[in-house]
């Protein structure tokens, strides 16, 4: 290798740009190739826009409790919830401007760190060479000692579900909406489907959620899914349980989706029916993006599902080629992509690196309330553990804010009391999960959590109370009456 390691990164999402910052910091010569603005899908189409849109939906939610909290219109009369409505074009303009600003901030940061940014589509022609079709026209050939593939993923579509950005959408086209869909069919009740179903129900759309399982959010804590289902139904959304989309028809002013019964997530015979809507949004998963990357010319192994298998430090089967993020098909989260990207660079540049601890990855679903979880799930683990489940009805802060829906659950190893995992279902759960994540990551005990001060009154008081209950201490103010 030459004195300065030449690194070429394909893809500018969190897997790519976080890696670029680490590599530049360690003195490497870094080029990042991305076919769109830096930040990638995460910033331009997925995490940032969806969460920005959900903030507008939350504002509609706050209107519902305004009257009870003593807030009135200027005549001190009306419940402002009755007169509030959403302007979809204004929501989407704000979303787009936030995403573009965030992408600009990342570009400035990366360029300031000395990273070269080439806008265009890149592919490997062999293990050391990346060819780029530049967005501005022409091509470039880049020589690399190390390549990182971080090209992300794209929404999965079905034979009949190709999006048209007018009536039929995936998460990718959704932000072109200028008017609120009166009757929205959301196909898929995983994290993305649940988030959008909730947001549009709060905006005032009539939402029909097609769920292939008995409960929404398959793979999550069933108690959490039950809270989310109650909340959906309170917002007027209709859940079509154990149904799969098998066909779709469009008309000038609407769409209809044919659904068939599903058993264990597969289509079961008989009982087909049509669900009518004005628009349909497919949230049926993401597919790793490896098409046309020239991975075969470089000898990089690719699985049947399109994912690139990697080890704990993001190495592919080729010594000098690494992969990070959704393209590896492993826990598709921005935080995971960023950590895999950093790990790849630390390893390639000879720094100490620890493999990712998958049991310490926290994830959140931004429904209302939010569902955040980390660590081992007692239903899927043989480790003997105690669990305490504390509803939020007793939390004084939750009562003040009318956020009593939800609970805190912590799992601790029997005997040692080591915190192994937990779930928080609450407003702000995405932040409240952090103390449990620190405990899991640092192998703290429930005793240490119980002895840590929490603010009074606060939602985090319920975390401390749950830890105290796990120690067998008497219940305090946060514990609701049975
Ligand atoms: C609707 C939605 C909401 C989400 N919300 C969250 C959330 O709240 N929190 C969270 O942690 N995760 C969330 N995710 C998941 C998160 O977006 C992904 O895990 C994350 O974007 C993965 O980052 P990445 O670096 O692997 O790739 P990406 O962010 O997908 O970026 C890859 C980039 O590479 C580009 N590219 C592809 N091929 C080439 C090529 N040949 N040459 C050059 N460039 C190329 C792509 O166009 C893209 O810009 C969400 C996903 C979706 C679909």
Characterization of the model:
There is one protein chain. 29% of the residues lie in helices and 25% in strands. The chain is an alpha/beta fold. The chain has helices spanning 14-25, 40-44, 47-66, 80-83, 88-112, 191-203, 222-234, 334-348, 396-400, 429-432, 434-441, 446-450, 461-470; strands at 6-10, 29-34, 116-126, 129-134, 139-143, 146-149, 153-155, 168-169, 183-187, 206-210, 238-240, 243-251, 254-263, 266-267, 273-277, 279-282, 286-288, 321-323, 363-365, 370-375, 385-391, 407-413, 419-426. Strand 3 (116-126) and strand 4 form a beta hairpin. Helix 1 (14-25) packs parallel to helix 8, helix 3 packs across helix 5 (88-112) and helix 3 packs across helix 6 (191-203). Bound molecules: flavin-adenine dinucleotide. The site of flavin-adenine dinucleotide (FAD) has 38 residues, from helix 1, strand 2, helix 2, helix 3 and strand 3.
Salient structural properties:
482 residues; alpha/beta; 7-stranded mixed sheet; 5-stranded parallel sheet; 13 helices; 23 strands; binds flavin-adenine dinucleotide
Characterize this entry briefly.
The protein is of the alpha/beta class and 482 residues long. The protein contains 13 helices and 23 strands.
SSE topology:
Elements: E1 6-10, H1 14-25, E2 29-34, H2 40-44, H3 47-66, H4 80-83, H5 88-112, E3 116-126, E4 129-134, E5 139-143, E6 146-149, E7 153-155, E8 168-169, E9 183-187, H6 191-203, E10 206-210, H7 222-234, E11 238-240, E12 243-251, E13 254-263, E14 266-267, E15 273-277, E16 279-282, E17 286-288, E18 321-323, H8 334-348, E19 363-365, E20 370-375, E21 385-391, H9 396-400, E22 407-413, E23 419-426, H10 429-432, H11 434-441, H12 446-450, H13 461-470
Parallel strand pairs: 1-2, 1-6, 2-3, 6-18, 8-16, 9-10, 9-16, 10-11
Antiparallel strand pairs: 3-4, 4-5, 7-17, 12-13, 13-14, 13-15, 19-20, 20-23, 21-22, 22-23
Helix pairs in contact: 1-8, 3-5, 3-6
Bound molecules: flavin-adenine dinucleotide (FAD).
């Amino acid at each position: 290798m030459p004195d300065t390691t030449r690194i070429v990164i394909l893809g500018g999402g969190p897997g790519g740009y976080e890696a670029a910052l680490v590599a530049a910091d360690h003195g490497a010569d870094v080029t990042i190739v991305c076919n769109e603005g830096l930040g990638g899908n995460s910033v331009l189409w997925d995490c940032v826009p969806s969460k920005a849109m959900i903030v507008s939906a939350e504002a509609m939610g706050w209107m519902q409790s305004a009257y009870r909290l003593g807030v009135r219109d200027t005549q001190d009369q009306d419940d402002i919830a009755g007169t509030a409505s959403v302007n979809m074009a204004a929501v989407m303009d704000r979303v787009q401007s936030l995403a573009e600003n965030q992408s600009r901030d990342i570009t400035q940061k990366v360029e300031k760190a000395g990273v070269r940014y080439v806008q265009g589509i890149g592919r490997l022609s062999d293990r050391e060479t990346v060819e780029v079709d530049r967005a501005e026209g022409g091509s470039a050939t880049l020589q690399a000692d190390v390549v990182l593939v971080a090209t992300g993923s794209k929404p999965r579509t079905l034979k009949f579900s190709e999006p048209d950005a007018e009536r039929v959408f995936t998460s990718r086209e959704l932000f072109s909406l200028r008017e609120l869909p009166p009757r929205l069919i959301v196909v898929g009740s995983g994290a993305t489907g649940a988030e959008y179903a909730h947001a549009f129900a709060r905006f005032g759309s009539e939402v029909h959620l097609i769920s292939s399982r008995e409960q929404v959010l398959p793979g999550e804590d069933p108690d959490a899914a039950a809270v989310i289902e109650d909340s959906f139904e309170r917002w007027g959304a209709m859940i079509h349980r154990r149904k799969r989309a098998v066909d779709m028809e469009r008309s000038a002013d609407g769409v209809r989706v044919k659904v068939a019964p599903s058993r264990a997530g597969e289509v079961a015979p008989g009982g087909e029916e049509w669900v009518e809507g004005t628009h349909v949004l497919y949230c049926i998963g993401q597919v790793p993006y490896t098409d046309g990357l020239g991975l075969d010319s470089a000898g990089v192994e690719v699985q049947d599902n399109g994912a690139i298998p990697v080890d704990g430090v993001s190495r592919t089967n080729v010594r000098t080629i690494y992969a990070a993020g959704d393209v590896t098909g492993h826990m598709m989260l921005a935080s995971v992509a960023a950590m895999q990207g950093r790990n790849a660079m630390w390893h390639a540049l000879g720094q100490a690196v620890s493999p990712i601890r998958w049991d310490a990855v926290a994830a959140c679903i931004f429904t209302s309330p939010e569902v955040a979880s980390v660590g081992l799930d007692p239903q899927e683990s043989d480790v003997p553990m105690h669990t305490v489940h504390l509803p939020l009805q007793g939390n004084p802060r939750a009562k003040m804010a009318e956020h009593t829906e939800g609970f805190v659950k912590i799992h601790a190893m029997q005997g040692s009391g080591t915190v192994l995992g937990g779930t928080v279902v609450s407003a702000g759960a995405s932040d409240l999960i952090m103390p449990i994540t620190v405990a899991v990551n640092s192998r703290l005990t429930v005793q240490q959590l119980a002895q840590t001060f929490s603010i009074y009154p606060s939602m985090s008081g319920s975390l401390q109370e749950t830890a105290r209950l796990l120690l067998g201490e008497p219940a305090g103010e946060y514990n609701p009456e049975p």
